[in-house]
Amino acid sequence: MSNISSTTGPSSASTIRGYGGLASGLDTDSLIKGMTIGIQAKIDKQEQSKQLLEWKMEACRTISSAMINFSNKYTSYTSKNNLSSASFFARNNIASVGKNSGCVSVTGGLSGAASFSVAGVKQLAMDASATSASAASDQVLRTGLIATDLTTERTINNLEGETLTFTYGTESYAVKLETGTMDGIEYKYDNMANATASINKALSNVSVGTGLTLADIMTVTADDTKFTLKELDAHGNLLALKSGSDSVLADMGFTADSAITVGGITGTEAILSHPEKTSDLLAGKSISFTYNGITKKLTMPAADQITTMDRLMEDVQRSMGSAFGSGRVKVSLNTVGEYSSFSFAAIRPDGSPDASSVLEISGADSGLLGPDGILGISAGESNRLNLGASLLESGLAAGLGTKTESDPLLLTINNVEIQGLTYGSTMKEVMEAINKTEGANVEISYLANADKFTFKSTASGASGNVEIGGESASVFGSMNSVSGQDALVTVRYTGSNETMDIVRGTNTFTLDGLNVTVKSAFGYTEAPAGVFTEVPDNEEIQFTATVDSDEIVGSVKQMIEDYNGILDMVNSQLSTKRNRDYLPLTDSQKEEMTDDKIEKWEGKTKAGLLFNDSTLRSLYDDFRFLFSSGSADKAALGTMGISVSTSYSDNGKLVLDETALKRAIESDPESVKDVFTRTENKTTGEAGGLMAKISTILKEYAGTTGASKGILIQRAGSASAPASVLNNTIQKEIDSAERNVERLKDQMKLQTDRYIKKFTSLETLISQMNSQSSWLSSALG
User: Which residues form a coiled coil (predicted)?
Assistant: First the structure.
């Protein structure tokens, strides 16, 4: 198929216009194509040249990307496999030895491991803390007040929580009429003014693209009784009120599929609310409870079965038993005069309180939850503290007496006063204020499952303190405090018979270059307090250290594989000859071929674009001759199991003898480290090690930092050097080809238009002559 013509048609020519040879019988389209074929050939040639350049750029970037990845992986100080770093070759395995070895662990350098032993751990470090002595909450989940007489009517808002659907152009947008306060904005629908403001706020929450919301497209206005919907700027799109949930459209005075115009549409009288019995409001509604992570939905009985609060309580109790098991949740009714409330408490099957179980209201049907809901309780409230409620309403077990929300809350932590709190503050605000107060030096948290507060000193060990004062008892109850203490570790240095105590504020610390973690005490008993006596037959912990040769060998092995992969990639590009019979396909040629044939053709076209390329040849030679023949480093690497393959077909690949390398690491780790990590010293003339030499080549050809980028980066650009993507040698050639194509297309259009004009004139003239001939024939009979 290599004989496909590259000039099979004007793929970018102007559309041919005119009479199309109707009068003359000429195939004017074909004639014009033939007359402009020379220009089309030039266009195709430039397009093909551009395509070849793009593929050449892609081939260069593939090589430079592999080199950049290699550099990031093996020569970057942020990589865990940085073979240029001396610390990589200092990786080791340090083992604790002795019957008490599990009490202490150590990591670090080889030399430090033999410098000391641990004779005992007298005590572990412990931060000062304080924890609630009893439950922080009363462990009861309560509803708000409900009218005891279930026939009592409530005023129900018709709009809140409902959804309006608008169509704008071809898209539909749902607008939720939010309830309560969302993102600091209060939504209310109790009168026309508040309802109008809330609907417009809801419109502003719905994006219609290009930075616009529905509030930019339309607005809602109202008088005392009616809403009006007006189009502001629909940008040429049709705008309409499509539908609404339940009866919200009728309540607003509109019908479905109402077009909204600039002049606006006004509905009939709006009905914002209606009265409804409490029993009807509860009937058939569902409430979701979560008990110890398991969520169940409970459905209220029908209206004719909700006759009294006592009967409703019994029904809810049965539902709780069915959902979570009999005797797990106790439902109680609390009635005071005209109002009642339900309370829920976790219990054990024997009826005793269950302090370990958490019961939460996780959701409910519309109208039940929220401050204005029938139940007067919000989703998320539980039989634990409500951190988002004021202290007075959070469910604290500690009695707050006659305090009001405006009363100041006086708290001191470690003799530092916590500012700006009142009994109207939420528990979350109280905790945040404590944690942020400079000088208090504690962190407070609430453990919901345990239902306890815990304070922890931010100062480690014996330096920390937790002292809670002021009115803390009324909020946190009594606390169990634990004093901070330091770790006391007894060590014996090599060559000495004396021991010494190491005092640290944490159980993990650095000692003589080693990272030491003490896990439990051993070797000493404490009696009396602060006096330690060594136990009989105490055995000290010794440490043995070995180089982590497996880790090092594994990384070197992977590095050599990646290095050889780059060599293969470069050699493949250099040695693959280009078949010049295969040129990039034109658009018209592609139209005549299947996708599979196009893919195969382009594969052959791409091959050999960098054949015998001088830049790649230099790169390849630099890689092959890292070390000159007979050099000391080449010989040293050979003894470590790293050599250049003697096989001609391997083209200079590195070969690794893992056993020899491992043996070298374990017998002489310093020499291995030196031959890999040594840097070049121009003053002394000392040559760099293996990774330094590789790094020099990587920087020369694929360097992405500094004022001067690598040769391949300057030639073809790289995403790792963003400025080079559009500013490189090949890209400039591509830009030149694109300009040539545009110039030739303009020339094609001018020439095509000129021929169209001439053929159009010819067709007009022939048509006139035909008309005259017909008239003469008719006149002469």
Answer: 727-754
| pLDDT, tens digit (0-9, with 9 covering 90-100), for 431-477 | 999 999 999 999 999 999 899 999 999 999 999 999 999 999 889 98
CA-based radius of gyration for the chain: 42
Q: Encode pLDDT of 711-730 as tens digits.
A: 999 999 999 999 899 999 99
| Closest to 670 (Cα-Cα) out of 689, 683, 657, 687 | 689
Look up residue 299 and give its two tokens: 């459905």
pLDDT at 649: 80
Distance CA 241, CA 172 (A): 10
Confidence of residue 688 (pLDDT cuts 50, 70, 90): confident
The tokens for 743 are: 């110039």
| Distances, alpha carbon 368 to alpha carbons 287, 363, 375, in Å | 8, 9, 5
Asked whether 114 and 106 are in contact (CB, 8 A), the reply is no
Listed in sequence order, the residues at least 6 apart from 496 whose beta carbon sits closer than 8 Å to its beta carbon are none
Cβ atoms 232, 219 nearer than 8 A:
yes
For residues 182 and 161, the answer to whether their CB atoms sit within 8 Å is no
Q: Can you list the positions of beta strands (E) in 448-498?
A: 452-457, 468-470, 479-482, 487-493
Dist CA 311 CA 299 (whole Å): 15
The CA distance from 194 to 177, in Å, is 12
Contact 129, 455 (CB under 8 A): yes
Q: Report domain extents, the chain.
A: 49-86+550-721, 92-125+486-547, 159-271, 278-376
For 140-156, what is the mean pLDDT? 92
Residue 61, pLDDT above cutoff 50: yes
Q: How many helices (H) and strands (E) does the chain have?
A: 20, 39
**Which residues touch 525 (CB under 8 Å, ≥6 apart)?**
532, 533, 535
Is the predicted pLDDT of residue 152 greater than 60, yes or no? yes
447 forms beta bridges with 452
- On the question of pLDDT at 200 being above 80, the answer is yes
> Distances in Å between the alpha carbon of 572 and those of 63, 566, 579, 580, 611?
11, 10, 15, 18, 9
pLDDT exceeds cutoff 80 at 597 = yes
Residue 400's pLDDT band (cuts 50, 70, 90): confident
- What gap in Å lies between CA 459 and CA 255, rounded to an integer? 67
DSSP string across 632-677: HHHHHHHHTTEEE---GGGTT-EEE-HHHHHHHHHH-HHHHHHHHH
Q: How many angstroms separate the CA atoms of 163 and 408, rounded?
A: 43
Query: Strands 532-534, 185-187: parallel, antiparallel or unpaired by DSSP?
Result: unpaired
Strands (E), 700-774: none
Comparing CA positions, the residue from 351, 355, 425 lying closest to residue 384 is 355
pLDDT value at 5 more than 50: no
DSSP code of 89?
G
Q: What is the DSSP letter of 616?
A: H
pLDDT bin (cut points 50, 70, 90) of residue 23 is low
**Cβ atoms of 493 and 115 closer than 8 Å:** yes
pLDDT in tens, 636-659: 999 999 998 888 888 888 999 999
CA distance 291 to 321: 12
What the block records as the tokens of 476 is 């946190």
Computed over every residue of the chain, the mean pLDDT equals: 89
Residue 569's alpha-carbon distances to 573, 608, 612, in angstroms, are 7, 12, 13
Phi, psi of 638 (to 5 degrees): -60, -40
